[in-house]
Amino acid sequence: MTRWLILLVGLLLAFAGSAGAAALVTTARRAIAEAISRRLRGGVESLAWLTTTEREVVASSAAASFGVALVGAAIPGVFDGVSLLELALLILFLVVPQHCSAAISCHGGSPCRGPRAP
Known about the structure:
The protein is mainly α. The protein is built from three helices and two strands. A hairpin with a 3-residue loop joins strand 1 and strand 2.
C-alpha cells in the first residue's frame, strides 16, 4: 500500500510541478515583454519582480523533478510481484496507447501518418 501511495504522490508532484512551471514561464514571458515595451517607451519600471518569478519557476521545476524521482523509486516496488507476461501486457495496453495519444496531441497528427494538412 505504501508503494502505491509513493507512486501516486510522485505522479501528483510531477504533474503539478510541470504544469505550474509551464504556466509561470508563459506568464513571465508576457510580463517581461510588457515591461520591456514600457521601458523602451521611456518608462521607469523596476524589474525586481523577476527574482520572485524566477524562484517560483525553480520551485515548480524542483517539485516536478522530485515527483519523477519518487515515481522512479516506487516503480520497482510496485511491479515486484508482476510476472514478465503481465508486465508485457501492461506496457502494451497502458504505455503504448498513452505514448501514441501524447504524440498525436503534441505533433498534431498520427505518428504513423504524419502531421495533418492545414
